[in-house]
Amino acid sequence: MQTRKKYIFLTFLASWLLLFFFGGDQLRRFAFLSVRKAEARRNWPRWTDRSLLKSFAEPEELQRDGDPSVLSPRERRAAWLSVHRSGRCRMETCFDFSRCERHGFKVFTYPQERGQPVSETYSKILSSIERSRYHTPNPEEACLFILSIDTLDRDHLSGQYVRDVDEKIRGFALWNGGRNHLIFNLYSGTWPSYTGELGFDIGQAMLARASSDTQSFRPGFDVSIPLFSKEHPQRGGNTGWLHQDSVPPKKKYLLVFKGKRYLTGIGSGTRNALHHIHNGQDIISLTTCKHGKDWEKHKDTRCDKDNVDYERFDYQELLHNSTFCIVPRGRRLGSFRFLEALQAACIPVLLSDGWELPFAEVIDWGRAAVVGSERLLLQIPSAVRCIHPERVLAFQQQTQFLWDAYFSSVDKIVHTTLEIIKDRLAPHRSRSRFLWNSLPGGLLVLPDFSTHLGDFPFYYLQHGYSPSQKFTAFIRVVSQAGSLSQPILRLIQAVSGSQYCAQIVVLWSCEKPPPPSGKWPQSSVPLTIVQGSRKLSQRFFPFEAIQTDAVLSLDEDTSLSTSEVDFAFLVWRSFPERIVGFPTLSHFWDPEQGRWGYTSKWTNELSIVLTAAAFYHRYYHSLFTEYLPAGLRELVDGLAACEDILMNVLVAAVTKLPPIKVTQRKQHKEGVAQQMEVEGTAGSRRFSQRQDCLNQLADWFGYMPLVSSRLRLDPVLFKDQVSVLRKKYPSLEK
Amino acid sequence: IMCASAKYNTRGPALIPRMKTKHRIYYITLFSIVLLGLIATGMFQFWPHSIESSSDWTVEKRSVHDVPVVKLPADSPIPERGDLSCRMHTCFDVYRCGFNPKNKIKVYIYSLKKYVDEYGTLVSNTISREYNELLTAISDSEFYTDDVNRACLFVPSIDVLNQNALRIKETAQALAQLSRWDRGTNHLLFNMLPGGPPDYNTALDVPRDRALLAGGGFSTWTYRQGYDVSIPVYSPLSGEVDLPERGPGPRRYFILSSQMALHPEYRVELEALQAENGESVLILDKCTNLSDGVPAVRKRCYKNQVFDYPQVLQESTFCVVLRGARLGQAVLSDVLQAGCVPVIIADSYILPFSEVLDWKRASVVIPEEKMPEMYSILQSIPQRQIEEMQRQARWFWEAYFRSMKAIALATLQIINDRIYPYAAISYEEWNDPPAVKWSSVSNPLFLPLIPPQSQGFTAVVLTYDRVESLFRVITEVSKVPSLSKLLVVWNNQNKNPPEDSLWPKIRVPLKVVRTAENKLSNRFFPYDEIETEAVLAIDDDIIMLTSDELQFGYEVWREFPDRLVGYPGRLHLWDHEMNKWKYESEWTNEVSMVLTGAAFYHKYFNYLYTYKMPGDIKNWVDAHMNCEDIAMNFLVANVTGKSVIKVTPRKKFKCPECTAIDGLSLDQTHMVERSECINKFASVFGTMPLKVVEHRADPVLYKDDFPEKLKSFPNIGSL
Fold first, then answer.
1. What is the ipTM of this complex?
2. CATH class of A253-405
3. Is A57–B162 a contact, with Cβ atoms under 8 angstroms apart?
4. Residue B43 belongs to some domain of the structure
5. Top mean-pLDDT range of A265-274, A458-467, A629-638, B466-475
6. What pLDDT does B321 receive?
């Protein structure tokens, strides 16, 4: 082995020496020449008098860019209103902002009229709006109006086509020339040209349409939405198909397509060429001529063979097993394929020139899809082959994030549309592009809470922030006793003993007034009393008094020691987006009853941390109160002990991660366990109400967001056989 | 196919069985190289030496006044007006750009000419200082080509930066007669001051057919999204005045307006704001009684007070940028340079480079109608965010406004990104200031996934010659339910691994990989044989971990797939006396590292370790035969920003016939060496990425009073 190496080395040396002796001179000359040649590139000349050149504009001219003769700003804006109409509509000219000032962003849907057929899809859209927190039944309050007429399918050859829309619209007293109206549309135009024609006058209304083309799209006014099928779920929606980050991120096939080949007509240019890239190995591009009634009329020589190949592969299987999926235009620019590929984590390779991509106003598609050019189809294979594996892995993950955040249900598509429009109303209180394109997504980030990334629990690492060093203890008091009980006094003492405690806020939810300030224990941290009602949901109201990122939520009868609090807070700082706490529950699917159940018994798993003693980020108070619809909060107020489940469900829906349990001392745990397991009517009522709550929440979200964990975080030396003196938290082991 | 990307070696460090054929290939290639070399040399010897004398390559030394004059006949063709429906796929010829391995467009610049009309009158100034700078920048960039036939984009040397400085019809004629004009296809024009009185169009009025326009001052009606590029109006003051960056934070004034030629209507509204909010608002105007010789453009006045411009901009937190006759204003550049957050009040204005820059991070856009509410709107912005916006504003100026070069290169990059979208620059690269790029992480495994348990993990055992101990490890590990494959990395080149029949019989596949060299980094190679995401790295002497402990470790990894999840934990400490980092293996309350003698991690980190390890760390580790685990801890923490997870209680890691990790750790020189590693790595990474935590993961019911047989992982922590 070693000798071999020597040989190689020697031969190398000898041959180079030979080369140098015989041809060195020429080689050197050649090298010299090539350097000279590079220098000799005809660059832009360095003019000898370049320093004497005049500036493109005098400073005076630049700074005095005003001309008194021009229209006054007010006149100009008035003039715009008449010039920039319909096809040239912008928010400034066709939208009445003043309607949104008094009541904020409220959306009104026209009442359904009798005998008015509405497709399944459109009624899903309408009910999504009605489920949204922006819905109002009162047109006086409304900022945005949605028609009850089904405008989704405007292909007059289609069965869903609604006739005489113009006439119907004219009958609406609220129409107002279409101002502040939003019209949803999935299909427009018809054979053979499939233009954007809608078949009625939209006036100054905004369009939320699929297959928008960049030329007729009115930027900042219209919204491009994805094409989705009528089976698309109302809420929840299926999760993406990526369950693991495989490395290398390669699948069986590199690039696939399976679909119709148009023999004639619009879109046939691309579809007709797709078979060229098929190589039968890692690139599978299958087309069939079979579509429409008279396909055999246009049949060409490829058709028969192609049709046979076409049947050999299963579309779903290709989706599952390919790294990239070609998403070409159909007759229209958008296709179902786009969402299918996105869900399947098959990176879409878009071949649809001029398509205004769905929600492109806010979504950065360059991170999740390859935007190809129809004209460069043949370069696609080499282009995708050259994409770095790291980038492929990032693409795959981004498809899943986008699918889950904005597309997996009709609710999400509609709510995203509404949020985009809402963001336009107050540009200074809107989401930055970064927020829309990183986890957990724009819908879950409320710009009304803050516009600063550091105020949210999600972006610490990406932006190099860290959560605040202190926490607020937030104690809810409900007991009817007029004076302060022993447990709460002990609790205040224990909590205020923590070096990380910044303040204590007491939510006084009793009918009797709180004791005067003199009766409260003296502690080193400020104590604030907030008067509250008996509503359970109020516990998660975003009180102004809470000033730190971390909230330690407590019940008055919770018993905690200072070291427990200290340790849990340090753990929370490592997981600021999760709930970190002590007593836990776990949920499970009960196949016999066909419903969700939960248990508070000791199990090897956990998925809910009780908010009787838990740390979480204060942003979740805002999400709870402002993001969740009022209906859910009413549900919580009606049931005993459902609010903490809702909080856990909400946080799990946002983070997709389980909560974290930390070490607790024994006595405390028994106390809670006893409390939970109370036999008798009160206990079992509580149990069944919680169970109901869990099932209603799963129904509202459309899936069960809770995630289970099998671990608990303990101090590093917990119960290790080492001197107690070495341990930082010895008291936790008692 | 030529890819720009470095192809990963998917096979592994030259493995023994493939050695022989490889040698043959070496010989053959070697000899062919020598042969070819000799032939080439010979040919050169007898080649006519004509190449050298073809021309002399002296650099042109000419004056702008000497450029050739072109006379435009009155009836020479005029291009069509700009086509508002143009988009890349309709008006741009991508075939000219082609697929190339570097993913860079080629830009050609027409040579400079002086255009005159029939009567010999100049059509425009030949070239302005700024346009010359811009063309020089393009010419010096990677985009440039001097070969008109290979070009994808053409930049005319006709200067149209300022519409007021040219004659529209004649300039259009000049454009039309360019050699490759072809209706303006793939031609790029730069314009900063469009329109003229009285209606001040928001795009260049020169008819330009299909040419792309990089314009300052587009409105949403004239901007062809995805086709045109919106650019800043360059402020020549940037070159003249040096405003050093000022730290973020509150400044003397809250709102400042420095523009001189505001429409009276705006001025009235601004003055109303000032009246309402007092001294925190400063509305400046031109100075009326300046002595001669003082340039009016460098002074601003409020009543009798005189302020230096643009220095005064640094005194304010927010600076108003109102539209004038045009939408684009040079003052925006000055404001950004001063690190003042621009408050942009110009309805329908397309902000510079808005296709890639996230202006919400650097500016506040307020609709004209909402001007009276400006103060309260700005007041509602959190202080921390204002500070970030100040930094961001300054960064935008430095990167994209500072010089004509910056403007030119950003424009070309945007067009380049459209043509090669799969190689486009990311949002972060465009928008994050260097300080953020440094302090932030972008986790390559950012999606919160809990990998399916069914996948299992692959155990990778690095071994040299401790066969007996190795076999015991194999037997122990094979008891773990989720183990799906066992890979033995045989690092001993002088000894063959035992025969197949001697290996323990286990229920999962067992593969032996032989390495070419005894290197520690072989442990972290992304072997194709590893088919699971999860890798358990385990030393050949770790026999004390129970099956429950290993299975639990895997479960914990599933919940934290982007972290190192390991058993023995270690800590780094700052040694105040020595002023450097110190390695600590004592019983501490904190951990910041786990030893990879027994740790789970994602296979992705094997790629990172093998191909992306910064600096010379990899070689350093192989040369010292130590610290590969510390290097891995650094790498993972640096890329994810997260801490390690130590699982299960501490055990005595002892093995009868060998010096185990703990045994070794006690050795003094070993400790010194490990400390040295930490200091070395911290200096290579330029930071200390390790995160210190006080927690470890145990099963939910660990040490609880609960029947052991009902616990999922009863056998934890036994010695």
1. 0.90
2. alpha beta
3. yes
4. no
5. B466-475
6. 96
